[in-house]
Amino acid sequence: MSDHLASELLTVGKITGCFGIKGWVKIHSYTDPQENFLKYQGWVLRRRDGSEPIEFDAGKRQGRGLVAHIRGVDDRTAAETFRGLEVAVAADSLPVLEEGDFYWHELEGLSVWCATDEGEVLLGRVDYLIETGANDVLVVKAGDGSIDDRERLIPYLPGDVVTRVDVEAGRIEVDWFLDD
């Protein structure tokens, strides 16, 4: 097993179909900007029964998406077998972000706290994030110790709604209204 398969894997895209007749596939990239998908190396294909390395030897923007060629796959029939599969990379291969910037996977699972007149209350944990176009949204699900059992959609607006992120401590502090 390669080092990339042994480390934590992060999904960076999905093969959504074929492009042409020479083994090219359409890629839905989860990266921002989407072309960053093509800058990675050490891609790993996720199958139901495990993961395996995959190599793209060419790629480009095509329309509103990306297309890439899988090394060793030179016809549409073979390329079709990859449709619907996710592509991941090793988490440690991602570029280091500037101070105060975070990857989504770093925010998922963090507890979300809100200051009130009576003190801090736990709203829940970040289950996942949604990209809305205007800003990202934290989907916060209630759990043990939460103030109530509500799911909350909280805009990820650092310096405004999100007042502090401490990944090491596992918490996000927000300035948010509590429903009555």
TrEMBL record:
<keyword id="KW-0698">rRNA processing</keyword>
<comment type="similarity">
    <text>Belongs to the RimM family.</text>
</comment>
<feature type="domain" description="Ribosome maturation factor RimM PRC barrel">
    <location>
        <begin position="104"/>
        <end position="176"/>
    </location>
</feature>
<keyword id="KW-0143">Chaperone</keyword>
<keyword id="KW-0963">Cytoplasm</keyword>
<dbReference type="Pfam" id="PF01782">
    <property type="entry name" value="RimM"/>
</dbReference>
<dbReference type="InterPro" id="IPR056792">
    <property type="entry name" value="PRC_RimM"/>
</dbReference>
<dbReference type="GO" id="GO:0006364">
    <property type="term" value="P:rRNA processing"/>
</dbReference>
<keyword id="KW-0690">Ribosome biogenesis</keyword>
<comment type="function">
    <text>An accessory protein needed during the final step in the assembly of 30S ribosomal subunit, possibly for assembly of the head region. Essential for efficient processing of 16S rRNA. May be needed both before and after RbfA during the maturation of 16S rRNA. It has affinity for free ribosomal 30S subunits but not for 70S ribosomes.</text>
</comment>
<comment type="subunit">
    <text>Binds ribosomal protein uS19.</text>
</comment>
<dbReference type="Pfam" id="PF24986">
    <property type="entry name" value="PRC_RimM"/>
</dbReference>
<feature type="domain" description="RimM N-terminal">
    <location>
        <begin position="11"/>
        <end position="91"/>
    </location>
</feature>
<dbReference type="InterPro" id="IPR009000">
    <property type="entry name" value="Transl_B-barrel_sf"/>
</dbReference>
<protein>
    <recommendedName>
        <fullName>Ribosome maturation factor RimM</fullName>
    </recommendedName>
</protein>
<dbReference type="GO" id="GO:0005737">
    <property type="term" value="C:cytoplasm"/>
</dbReference>
<dbReference type="InterPro" id="IPR036976">
    <property type="entry name" value="RimM_N_sf"/>
</dbReference>
<dbReference type="InterPro" id="IPR002676">
    <property type="entry name" value="RimM_N"/>
</dbReference>
<dbReference type="GO" id="GO:0042274">
    <property type="term" value="P:ribosomal small subunit biogenesis"/>
</dbReference>
<dbReference type="GO" id="GO:0005840">
    <property type="term" value="C:ribosome"/>
</dbReference>
<dbReference type="InterPro" id="IPR011033">
    <property type="entry name" value="PRC_barrel-like_sf"/>
</dbReference>
<dbReference type="InterPro" id="IPR011961">
    <property type="entry name" value="RimM"/>
</dbReference>
<dbReference type="GO" id="GO:0043022">
    <property type="term" value="F:ribosome binding"/>
</dbReference>
